Amino acid sequence: MTESASACCACGACCVTYRVTLPRIELDTAPGGRVPAGLTEPYTPTTACMREHPDIPGRCIALAGEVGVAVTCTIYPQRPSACSEFAPLSAIGIGDEACDEARRRHCISPLGGG
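RE: above sequence
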């Protein structure tokens, strides 16, 4: 793992700041879907959202570890497209406005723009 990739793996601020909404066609109950439906809840007739951790409001149910120290997504290969598309350059150490705002909210230095 590169140092810049470890910045993302140590952060997790986005997973405790933003609630992920996804089209229901991404759920593993739909043909070609991959996101575990059991980790989501209905939002609208065509969308679902990732459930929150039962003991930590606002925290994605799929996040493991300590925010700002070391985290992992327990469904990384099956994560929603909203997650895989979030802050696309953060893995190489370049944040965007949403990434940097999530980091600031959790007292983690922003990555900043490139």
